[in-house]
Amino acid sequence: MTPVVELVDITKVYGSGVNEVRAVDGVTLTIERGEFVAVMGASGSGKSTLMNIIGALDVATSGTYRLDGVDVGELDDDALSLVRNRRVGFIFQSFNLIPRMSAVSNVELPLMYRGVPRTERRRRALDALGSVGLADRTHHQPNELSGGQQQRVAVARALAMQPALMLADEPTGNLDSRSTAEVLDLLEQVHAEGGTIAVITHEDEVAARARRVITLRDGRVESDVRR
Amino acid sequence: MIIWESFRSGWQAIIANRLRSALTILGIMIGVAAVITLVAFGQGASNSISASIQSLGTNLLTVFPDDPNEDGVIVNPAPRDLTLDDVVALSDTGRGPDIAGVAPVKSAPVSCTHADRSYRTTMNGTWPAYYTINNSELAQGTYFQNSDVLDGRRVASIGSTVAEKLFGTGDPLGAQIVCNGVPFTVTGVLVSKGSTGPFNNDDVILAPLTSVENSLVGYGPLNTISVQGVSPERVDAAQAQVITILDAQHGTTVETRDYAIFNQASLLDTIDQALGIFTALLGAVAAISLLVGGIGITNIMLVSVTERTREIGIRKAVGATRRYILLQFLLEATVLSLIGAVAGLVLAFAASFIEIAGIRPAIVPSSVIAAFVISVAIGLFFGSFPANRAASLRPIEALRHE
């Protein structure tokens, strides 16, 4: 079976000459379908850069990256948008919901860009909101929801896309401990149902839920531990 | 579907920033209203002048004597006057098929009195055909007839100005006025035509040609001959026939011609042309304000894009392509300009009921359509720069934006 993420000797360089910074320096790793991986590292270890590359938000300077079998390295801006739209569900530290749009509209947004018909879209969005326990908050706008609820909307948005990879960047960084637990429970539930999850974090509590922990240091893989 | 969603999010952005949107719309509104209203005023001015010229008769040709030797060189040693023979020749429908009517005119300055009032005016001795040719209708009374001309009866149709000066509010019908010592009976009062420029069309008295000749001016040459074409379209053909007939009568050519023809329709054309330029100029000035309104849209859309950088980042992260972002912002700009256009249109319609300097603005449908199309084009054109900027944002940078 095709791995969901297949990074071969990925390098990302910023600047040039004396200012050259190798944010990611020759990373090779594979994430199989159904894995729950945590990527850890101190700030400056290159984990955000790596997350951007894995999420197809950015392209590597060199190396090969296949996301769900698609070589992402050669794609232009629009093609990257399409790849993200069909294969990656994002969960961000700052939730990144669109203000002044109801929860259900936010969840529908990626499906709209995918061209899913209105009724089908609405049904899937409501299902996803139901499965994160927000069936009674579908028409609230982000500013009417608590942080934990907003992050659950974000999880629903990712879920509704039925992505090959669910990519979470510090998903609990802005949450209190109770909301943190709720969101992590949701991620575990997704994993239990066969979803593939990559979480970028520096919190041990988050990493503890994952079945595999990759630690980065200075842009390189320092350790890769399966449990 | 995408268009509808994009429209909705554009609309939400407009609603969320009401004051800002309203001010932007105001710019477009003023531009559109200015274009439509100023063009309407130009058209209104043109209409009112055309109407006053048309009241003198649209098919009218006036033949008057002209000096062929006006450069001092003698090209025609014996220029002829206009005579009744010319009138008879012009009346020959075989030679002038496009000539509908001919009337000789002999004018005399007269001083007329009635009771204790006196007024100086012009008396035109003519034939009954003059009424139709010159579009002169009677408000009251009866037209003088061919029999009146044959008998040399001293009857007169007086212009409304003359009626007012000599009779005030009294009834002129049947009254006797004395012009240069000769008594005339008023049998009709003409419908008022108003003024054409400084010339008062109501300051005139019409009487049978023979009675004017008998008692006032004698049997000399005619002052003018009024000729009517069969239709406004055939006036030029009628003019050509008049020239052919009179050249034969007088034995003249284009160089030695001893008469000239004044064509009312060509005057109308010239004035229309001049007013057209005037109207276009007004429209152009107004278009500048529309342009300024368009720049307002660019400005506000740039602010909108900057404010929503993060939103654009989110949209791109979840899969919006350039096209969707572009569409969303273009629609937002177009909605702004469309609302402005509709508001401007309403304002212009309201303004068209206001009369300025006696001119009632006439809204020109093509200017409405043009203003609409231009304002939508302005939305697209001036929105495209900010929209492009939004569409080109890189998602990681946009997401980092606070």
Q: Concise description?
A:
The complex is a heterodimer of chains A (227) and B (402). With 227 residues, chain A is α/β, with parallel strands linked by helices.
> What composes the largest sheet of chain B?
6 strands, mixed, barrel
Shape estimate of chain A: globular
| Poorly predicted regions of chain A | none
Helices of chain B, by number, come to 13
Low-confidence stretches of chain B: none
- State the distance separating the first and last CA atoms of chain B: 30 Å
Q: What's the SSE pattern of chain A?
A: EEEHEEHEHHHEHEHEE
Mean pLDDT of chain A: 89
How many strands appear in the DSSP assignment of chain B? 12
- The number of domains of chain A is 1
Give the structural class of chain A.
alpha/beta
Q: Give the proportion of residues in helices of chain A.
A: 25-40%
In percent, how much strand structure appears in the residues of chain B?
15-25%
CATH architecture designation of chain A: 3-Layer(aba) Sandwich
Terminus-to-terminus distance of chain A:
22 Å
Radius of gyration of chain B: 33 Å
Structural class of chain B: alpha+beta
Structural commentary:
The complex is a heterodimer of chains A (227) and B (402). Chain A is α/β, with parallel strands linked by helices. Chain A is built from 7 helices and 10 strands. The longest helix of chain A has 16 residues, at 177-192. The two termini of chain A are 22 Å apart. Chain B has 2 domains: 2-52 and 270-400, no CATH class; 67-257, no CATH class. Chain B has 13 helices and 12 strands. Chain B has a 6-stranded mixed β-barrel with strand order 2-3-10-5-7-6, surrounded by 4 helices. Chain B is elongated. Chain B starts with a helix and ends with a helix. The model of chain B has no long low-confidence stretch (mean pLDDT 84). The chains are: A alpha/beta (227), B alpha+beta (402). Chain A binds chain B through residues 52, 55, 57-58, 77-78, 81-82, 84-86, 90, 92, 96-101, 109-110, 112-115, 117-118, 157, 161, and chain B through 1-2, 5, 9, 12, 16, 310-311, 313-324, 394-396, 399.
